[in-house]
Each structure stands twice: as C-alpha cells, then as structure tokens.
Design goal:
Elements: E1 4-6, H1 9-17, E2 21-27, H2 32-47, E3 52-57, H3 62-67, E4 75-80, E5 83-89, H4 94-106, H5 109-121
Site (Deprotonates C-terminal active site Cys): 25
GO molecular function, one term: protein-disulfide reductase activity
Domain Thioredoxin: 1-106
Length: 122
C-alpha cells in the first residue's frame, strides 16, 4: 500500500482544501534529486498518516507546475487549512523534513490569519 498520493491539476485544489495538512512534492522522473528525495517523502508519509503527502509529476502536470510557479525540482510545498505555509526548492534530508512537519503541526494558522486580518484593518 502506498502512503503518498499522486495528484493531478483537477485534484489539486480539493486535496489542499479538504485536508488539514498537505505536503506536495513537485518532481519529475528524470530528476536525480527528486528520485533521491522520494524515499524520504514516503517515510514521512508512513510516519504521519494524518498528513496528506501528495506528489505532482511536473512532466505530466506542466500547467499545474507553471501555475504553482515551480522553477526547479524537487520543490516541496506545505498547506495548512488550504493556506500555503511553506514553499522551498531542493530535497530535504529526513531530519529537516521531520522538523518541518512538526513546525507545521504546531503552527496556528487561524491565529496567523486573524493577525494578518487585524493588520489589514489598520
């Protein structure tokens, strides 16, 4: 059973909006660093079944990659409650990915949005 999920442009918005936390790995089969990062991403998915670990093949989903402004791969994006909270190119080592997951879990997106909205008022 695979714990990562391949998603298409058609599934992208529903995936990030219908799940609390979503990590998205933008990759391509010809990309060496992408292939090297894949086992790390899969291990994270096994360790954190409460988080959706989605993969976007930038070759198959070129329009989605362009819309997401992907300039180099692998690129990892993280969404919490539909909001982008992390966006970085480059393969993360396992410890860094785990640290990122813990930070996203702890991040209070509702307070951040409220603070941003309060700032917009003044």
């Amino acid at each position: 059973m695979t714990t990562t999920r391949d998603i298409t442009a058609a599934e992208f918005n529903d995936t990030i909006n219908d799940n609390e936390i979503v990590l998205v790995d933008f990759w391509a089969s010809w990309c060496g660093p992408c292939r090297a990062f894949a086992p790390t991403f899969a291990q994270s998915a096994e360790k954190h079944p409460d988080i959706v670990h989605a993969k976007v093949d930038t070759e198959a989903e070129q329009q989605l990659a362009a819309a997401a402004d992907i300039r180099s791969i692998p690129t990892l994006m993280a969404f919490k409650k539909g909001k982008l909270v992390f966006n970085q190119a480059g393969a993360l080592p396992p410890a860094a990915l785990e640290d990122l997951v813990q930070q996203i879990k702890a991040f209070d997106i509702d307070a951040a949005i409220a603070a941003q909205n309060d700032g917009d008022q003044g």
